[in-house]
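Sample pair:
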Amino acid sequence: MQTKPKRYGKQAINTRQIKLIHAIKGKLGISDDDYRTLLYGLFEVLSSKALSWAEAEDLITELNGKAGNPPQPSCHKAGKHAETKKYSELDGRPGMATGAQCRMIAGMWGDVSRMPDAESRDKALRQFLYRIVGIDHFRFLRRGHVERVVKALESMGAVAPGRDRDRSGQA
């Protein structure tokens, strides 16, 4: 009896990924039968629509390697510096904090943290997140948790973007 491969990543494949997979497939000139054989060999599925978001990213990397293309950032958007934004891989997850919210929290943490180097500052931020909302990392941060974390950081003296320092303590 053959066991099913472990599916990792609960988020479903998105249309951008499907279009990119089929564009690379067309560029490589892969026949439909060969494509489905590749899908079945790697993920034991016959359609790219059955893949999770993470599996689709793996397939895109695999196909780009066969095409001789350098790996594309998973969050590539048409924009000036889209590929350099920290936490942008956390965008597009239903019910979870966005990359922009995580960047805001990290920036606010930088205002109040006393840690001298980035590594210890990140570790302290993870401990802070665990103490406030019970999670170990930004990738587990839900949208509902963001407000609690921001309020805790404001009570420590950080100022959220768009808020005036003079009004931070007033209602």
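The longest helix spans residues 118-133.
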